[in-house]
Amino acid sequence: MSNEYNLKNNYTMYNDEPEIINPVVLEKALKPFNWGAFGFGWLWGLGNGSLHKVWWIIVADILLLVSKNISHVKIALFFMAFFAFVKLVLSIYFGFNGNKWAFHNRAWWSMTDFEDTQYRWAVATGICAILMLISTLFRLLILSSIHIH
Fold first, then answer.
1. Which residues, including other chains, have CB under 8 Å from residue 32's CB and lie 6 or more apart?
2. 8-state DSSP, 110
3. The model scores a pTM over 0.70
4. Which phi-psi region, left, alpha or beta, contains residue 107 (left: φ > 0; alpha: ψ -120 to 50)?
5. Which DSSP string do the residues of 15-71 spell out, in sequence order?
6. Share above pLDDT 90 across residues of the chain, in percent, rounded to a whole number
7. Which whole-number Å values give the CA distances from 49 to 43, 58, 70, in the listed order?
């Protein structure tokens, strides 16, 4: 048996001629941190055929929303902090495993197609992070300019 990885063996319904990938190249391509999986969680999972891997983040989101409605302040703060921590841990886990999940759970035209798609998810994560930072700074600026007498 050959040490080369054949995309058609797994998924390709698109290509007549499968792309042959050296396992060293494949391992290198699947190793980097996946910023799309980290930043977008279940939305990234839906777009990459990996929703079954990231459903836990949906549960954490729901529990985080529910914990905001707890009437006892200390208990509500505890649960909000706990579920925010759980979401952070899950997001990091998704980031480390996202490339493997995406590659093995969706049909790809080629390795370049796979890498380009994951790159676009990473760019989208970066743009959203910058927009959230700007929004937060803007809110802080507005709040600091309000004088309560």
1. 99
2. -
3. yes
4. beta
5. -SSPPEE-HHHHHHHHSS--HHHHHHHHHHHHHTT-HHHHHHHHHHHHHHHHHTT-S
6. 35
7. 10, 16, 35
